[in-house]
Amino acid sequence: MSGAGYRLYGAPGWGSVLTEAMLVQCGAPFVFENVEGFDTPGETRRRLLALNPLGQIPTLILPDGTVMTESAAIALLLAERHPDAGLAPPPDAPERATFLRRLVWLVANVYPTFTYGDYPERWVTAAPEALGAAMVEQRKTLWLWLESQLSDGPWVLGERFSALDLYVGAMVHWRPRRAWFADHCPKLARVAERVLALPNLEPVWNRNFTPSP
């Protein structure tokens, strides 16, 4: 992960894996800046806050020095800059509308369940564990809805690979985890298995996740 180009601030196993996988899929040179521990006070967090005042990852520095945040925005930008990577259908493709809807749906609906569920004590003072559990159940409901929308094709968009598949490949590692997907969302589980088996992305998954059944 060296060479001129992009600079990605992230932490193994966190949401920055999405952008890391996208950059690798694009074949784009980048440097990975490990800011593990960014969510607690200290020098690492201060370093990230200097770039992204929200203190969130992924934070991506473009070759011209522009700071990019928000994984969906990054996905769309990289799709424009690296069209051969297949991160998004072109504007005139029949799958384009579905791609945009599902991408925004993921970051607007599924992702917030991690924001509130992983650190419930930040948001409520009474029974934070109840909020955390409720977020996991809501997440299951959301995944079940997406499962109901998929065809029998190999990818989230059917026959066309996209960044949506990278989201699924990463997010099955997070609660409710892969065994639940295998039991309740077999189409999504199959998408994940295909993404996790892509040779060019195998190092990304290995850097970020402990192998699990």
UniProtKB/TrEMBL annotation:
<feature type="domain" description="GST N-terminal">
    <location>
        <begin position="3"/>
        <end position="86"/>
    </location>
</feature>
<keyword id="KW-0614">Plasmid</keyword>
<dbReference type="Pfam" id="PF13410">
    <property type="entry name" value="GST_C_2"/>
</dbReference>
<dbReference type="InterPro" id="IPR010987">
    <property type="entry name" value="Glutathione-S-Trfase_C-like"/>
</dbReference>
<dbReference type="Pfam" id="PF13409">
    <property type="entry name" value="GST_N_2"/>
</dbReference>
<dbReference type="InterPro" id="IPR004045">
    <property type="entry name" value="Glutathione_S-Trfase_N"/>
</dbReference>
<dbReference type="InterPro" id="IPR036249">
    <property type="entry name" value="Thioredoxin-like_sf"/>
</dbReference>
<protein>
    <submittedName>
        <fullName>Glutathione S-transferase family protein</fullName>
    </submittedName>
</protein>
<keyword id="KW-0808">Transferase</keyword>
<dbReference type="GO" id="GO:0016740">
    <property type="term" value="F:transferase activity"/>
</dbReference>
<dbReference type="InterPro" id="IPR036282">
    <property type="entry name" value="Glutathione-S-Trfase_C_sf"/>
</dbReference>
<feature type="domain" description="GST C-terminal">
    <location>
        <begin position="92"/>
        <end position="213"/>
    </location>
</feature>
